[in-house]
What we know:
Elements: H1 2-25, H2 38-41, E1 44-45, E2 69-70, H3 72-75
Antiparallel strand pairs: 1-2
Amino acid sequence: MKxxxxxxxxxxLLFLGVHFTACESxxxxxxxxxxxxxxxxxxxxxxxxxxxxGSDKPGKCPAxxxxxxxxxxxxxxxxxxHSGxxHSGxxHGDHDGHNH
Length: 100
Protein backbone atom coordinates (compact mmCIF):
# COMPACT_ATOMS: atom_id res chain seq x y z
CA MET A 1 0.00 0.00 0.00
CA LYS A 2 2.86 2.34 0.84
CA UNK A 3 4.34 1.75 -2.63
CA UNK A 4 1.04 2.75 -4.32
CA UNK A 5 0.86 5.97 -2.30
CA UNK A 6 4.46 6.84 -3.23
CA UNK A 7 3.76 6.08 -6.89
CA UNK A 8 0.61 8.22 -6.83
CA UNK A 9 2.46 11.08 -5.12
CA UNK A 10 5.41 10.98 -7.58
CA UNK A 11 3.04 10.75 -10.54
CA UNK A 12 1.10 13.77 -9.31
CA LEU A 13 4.29 15.80 -8.90
CA LEU A 14 5.47 14.81 -12.37
CA PHE A 15 2.10 15.75 -13.90
CA LEU A 16 2.03 19.14 -12.17
CA GLY A 17 5.64 19.89 -13.11
CA VAL A 18 5.04 19.11 -16.79
CA HIS A 19 1.74 20.98 -16.81
CA PHE A 20 3.09 24.22 -15.36
CA THR A 21 6.30 24.09 -17.40
CA ALA A 22 4.35 23.65 -20.63
CA CYS A 23 1.98 26.50 -19.75
CA GLU A 24 4.81 28.91 -19.04
CA SER A 25 6.71 28.17 -22.26
CA UNK A 26 3.77 28.35 -24.67
CA UNK A 27 3.28 31.72 -26.40
CA UNK A 28 0.39 33.82 -25.26
CA UNK A 29 -2.03 34.69 -28.03
CA UNK A 30 -3.00 38.32 -27.62
CA UNK A 31 -4.88 40.20 -30.32
CA UNK A 32 -3.37 43.50 -31.45
CA UNK A 33 -5.85 46.38 -31.46
CA UNK A 34 -3.57 49.18 -32.70
CA UNK A 35 -4.33 49.35 -36.44
CA UNK A 36 -1.03 51.16 -37.07
CA UNK A 37 0.99 48.20 -35.74
CA UNK A 38 2.77 45.77 -38.06
CA UNK A 39 0.06 43.18 -37.34
CA UNK A 40 -2.15 45.30 -39.62
CA UNK A 41 0.34 47.08 -41.89
CA UNK A 42 2.68 44.26 -43.01
CA UNK A 43 2.38 42.68 -46.46
CA UNK A 44 1.41 39.37 -44.81
CA UNK A 45 -0.62 39.35 -41.60
CA UNK A 46 -2.02 36.83 -39.14
CA UNK A 47 -5.79 36.36 -39.45
CA UNK A 48 -5.97 36.61 -35.63
CA UNK A 49 -3.82 39.81 -35.56
CA UNK A 50 -1.63 38.35 -32.80
CA UNK A 51 0.85 40.71 -31.17
CA UNK A 52 4.28 40.25 -32.73
CA UNK A 53 2.95 38.84 -36.00
CA GLY A 54 3.15 40.26 -39.51
CA SER A 55 5.86 39.96 -42.13
CA ASP A 56 6.92 41.11 -45.57
CA LYS A 57 7.08 37.44 -46.60
CA PRO A 58 4.64 34.51 -46.35
CA GLY A 59 5.02 32.36 -43.25
CA LYS A 60 3.35 31.37 -39.98
CA CYS A 61 2.34 33.46 -37.00
CA PRO A 62 4.79 32.87 -34.12
CA ALA A 63 1.98 32.98 -31.55
CA UNK A 64 -0.93 30.96 -33.00
CA UNK A 65 0.91 29.10 -35.82
CA UNK A 66 -1.72 30.07 -38.42
CA UNK A 67 -0.53 30.77 -41.97
CA UNK A 68 -0.09 34.44 -42.79
CA UNK A 69 -2.50 35.82 -45.37
CA UNK A 70 -1.84 38.50 -47.95
CA UNK A 71 -2.80 41.87 -46.53
CA UNK A 72 -5.34 43.00 -49.16
CA UNK A 73 -5.31 46.55 -47.79
CA UNK A 74 -1.57 46.86 -48.32
CA UNK A 75 -1.67 45.07 -51.70
CA UNK A 76 -4.37 47.47 -52.93
CA UNK A 77 -2.54 50.57 -51.70
CA UNK A 78 -1.53 52.97 -54.48
CA UNK A 79 2.10 53.20 -55.54
CA UNK A 80 4.29 56.02 -54.21
CA UNK A 81 2.97 59.41 -55.33
CA HIS A 82 5.68 61.49 -57.01
CA SER A 83 3.45 64.48 -57.78
CA GLY A 84 4.94 66.73 -55.10
CA UNK A 85 8.52 65.53 -55.59
CA UNK A 86 11.15 67.66 -57.35
CA HIS A 87 12.91 65.59 -60.01
CA SER A 88 15.18 68.34 -61.36
CA GLY A 89 18.26 67.22 -59.39
CA UNK A 90 18.31 63.57 -60.43
CA UNK A 91 17.35 61.19 -63.22
CA HIS A 92 15.04 58.27 -62.57
CA GLY A 93 15.63 56.78 -66.02
CA ASP A 94 12.97 54.45 -67.35
CA HIS A 95 10.96 53.00 -64.43
CA ASP A 96 8.21 50.52 -65.13
CA GLY A 97 4.97 51.95 -63.84
CA HIS A 98 6.46 55.38 -63.11
CA ASN A 99 5.73 58.29 -65.40
CA HIS A 100 8.04 61.18 -64.61
